[in-house]
Amino acid sequence: MSKTAAFFDLDKTIIAKSSVLAFGKPFFHGGLINRRAVVRSAYAQFVFALSGADHDQIEKMRKYLTDLVAGWDVAQVKDIVSETLHEIIDPLVYTEAVDLIAQHKAEGRDVIIVSSSGEEVVAPIGAMLGADHVIATQMLAGQDGRYTGEISRYAYGPEKATAIKELADQIGYDLSGSYGYSDSVTDVPLLEAVGHPYAVNPDRGLRKIAADRGWPTLTFTNSVPLRQRLTGLRPQGSTITLGAGLGTAALVLATLWALSRRRRRTARGS
User: Fold this and answer.
1) pLDDT one-digit tens code per residue, 12-47
2) pTM
3) 9 catalytically annotated
4) Which of 64, 120, 258, 270 falls between 20 and 30 A from 139, CA-CA?
5) For residue 251, what is the domain's CATH number?
């Protein structure tokens, strides 16, 4: 009998919020992100979100984010993540997702988390959830211990599908009998790569595609603190390959920028 797997997106599929969103504050306080980066990251994230995710736009976003984190000290990033992990990676996770992961494990399937977030964030969460493997964005560091701005893998959009196919070839998964779960239209290539795709709390684009193709849609609404469901929040020997800035800077500080812009509009109107 062929070995099968279940591939899960992370943010808004397993976890109700962005897994890296809360790291903005410690990175800002640690001096990795300045006020100029706040505005630029926010602008880039909003433009990218509004304009879609074709190949050219993905490449533009990747270049912007790698330029942003280039030069960050890996040890400093590792220290910040380690010091704040217990506080930050105790997010709300969907009870339905945890139960579904347990069901797949009980039925003999490997569970793989596939996320565009940095591996240093995804790997500890994956360990807590009992995932067998994680696929995440990886950034290279030079001999000086700083990020070079080069990415060895940007786990976003079509690259997720490529990554799971490579893993399937390596381990021997039968993708036609495997499962996939995501909330985002950008993960359609991943969902197309498996025999059992599911849209979880889908965005508008994915909802339409799921309806057109007859893909089942799941609604996850019940969330609980991860510590109440799982133990071992302090992972042993986790590897840092990407400063959480590849998504942290853009995602976190987009929110700050939006709030500051709202305040300015309010002030002008008063």
Assistant:
1) 899 877 666 556 677 777 887 765 655 555 555 444
2) 0.74
3) yes
4) 258
5) 3.40.50.1000
